[in-house]
Write a structure and sequence with these properties.
Mean pLDDT: 90
Strand content: 5-15%
Order of helices and strands: HHHEEHHH
Strand order of the largest sheet: 1-2
Structural class: mainly alpha
Number of helices: 6
CATH architecture of the largest domain: Orthogonal Bundle
CATH topology of the largest domain: Arc Repressor Mutant, subunit A
Shape: elongated
Largest sheet: 2 strands, antiparallel
Low-confidence stretches: 1-6
Number of strands: 2
Distance between the termini: 34 Å
Number of domains: 2
Length: 130
């Protein structure tokens, strides 16, 4: 089976959890990431350190040395990651058909009137770009 071009950017749940913290912080040490974990969420220092090194290998993070150890910095913006992930899902799950993804999303998620109106504006804007 052919590997998807975005496969190296796929994140496990815990990788995404740590990246979400770093996107919010902008950058951080292992200890700073641990401090931002939700109350009751216990991850060992060595576990967080290992996961952050894996994210560096995946080129999602970069590091710089500091007196307190390593500082981890997102190498890609959250919006870029979201776009890459959505494209990967469209390719792998919805046979490259974005309409199928949108149809499924609209059927699976309850939207209020304001959200529907915003979606209409986005579609109209997209149509005028064509």
């Amino acid at each position: 089976m052919k590997k998807a071009k975005h496969e190296s950017k796929r994140l496990t749940d815990v990788e995404l959890e740590l990246m979400t913290i770093l996107w919010r912080l902008g950058e951080g040490t292992v200890n700073e990431v641990i401090e931002q974990l939700p109350r009751g969420r216990e991850l060992a220092y060595t576990s967080v350190s290992t996961i952050l090194r894996i994210l560096e290998q995946k080129e999602i993070l970069r590091t710089r040395k500091a007196s307190s150890g390593h500082i981890y910095i997102p190498a890609m913006k959250k919006a870029e990651f979201e776009a890459t992930t959505v494209q990967d899902i469209v390719e792998r799950v919805f046979d490259g058909t974005p309409v199928a993804l949108v149809r499924q999303l609209l059927g699976a998620v309850k939207m209020n009137a304001d959200e529907i109106e915003e979606l209409k504006k986005i579609l109209n804007q997209k149509e005028s770009e064509e």
